[in-house]
Amino acid sequence: MTHQEIAQVRKPAPRFTAKAVVDGVFETVSLDSYIQDPEIKYILLFFYPMDFTFVCPTEACVVAIIAFSERIEQFKALKTAVLACSCDSEYSHLAWVNTPKKEGGLGPMKIPLIADKTHEIAKKYGVYLEESGFSLRGLFIIGGDGIVRQITINDTQVGRSTDEALRLIEAFQFSDEFGEVCPVNWKKGASTIKPEVTESKEYFGKQK
């Protein structure tokens, strides 16, 4: 696989079609189906190492996936689809969904769990660990035009933040709509920078 085929910011997101568990049943999903949906402006695709495994307790995978699922209405309000993916089979995903939370399962999910049994998707997104057979904790924000806007890849020991994922999407949404720059630590409602030398002084003049 060439460098150009791996996910990069400002480049087209690598396409894929795969089996997934959606609302407790098997479905075939494709990235193109989300890109072509006029109601979706952003796609958040995140990878986690494995189902039913000791590799995941730091995030823990269960907690992380449930957190994204439970906050899906906030993502939907931002016209964002959320997809989870690991190198497990769709059967493993279904078993995990059907396992009660108190026994280490996920319980009912409001987001698709994509099965990447061939590791092809993880490789396309540059998160696959050849020596381990599973993926790193990658998170990708893809625009409705299919272009990668943001990439975060963590080693397996450190989890991610749903708050930060929402903040980033809000920032891209604001910037895309108004053409302004969202500075460091920007949150919705905070000042932004107009991308012109003279106009940008309005923002910097407010800084202490």
UniProtKB/TrEMBL annotation:
Keyword Signal: no
Active site (record annotation): 56 (cysteine sulfenic acid (-soh) intermediate)
Transmembrane segments: none
Keyword flag Hydrolase: no
Signal peptide: none
Pfam families cross-referenced by the UniProt entry: 1-cysPrx_C, AhpC-TSA
Family designation: Belongs to the peroxiredoxin family. AhpC/Prx1 subfamily.
CDD domains, sorted: PRX_Typ2cys (cd03015)
Entry function: Thiol-specific peroxidase that catalyzes the reduction of hydrogen peroxide and organic hydroperoxides to water and alcohols, respectively.
One GO cellular component, as annotated: cytosol
Catalytic activity line of the entry: a hydroperoxide + [thioredoxin]-dithiol = an alcohol + [thioredoxin]-disulfide + H2O
EC number annotated for this UniProt entry: 1.11.1.24
SUPFAM superfamilies in the record: Thioredoxin-like (SSF52833)
GO molecular function, one term: thioredoxin peroxidase activity
UniProt domain Thioredoxin: residue ranges: 7-174
Name of the molecule in the record: thioredoxin-dependent peroxiredoxin
Gene3D superfamilies in the record: Glutaredoxin
Species per Swiss-Prot/TrEMBL record: Paraglomus brasilianum
Keywords associated with the record: Antioxidant, Disulfide bond, Oxidoreductase, Peroxidase, Redox-active center
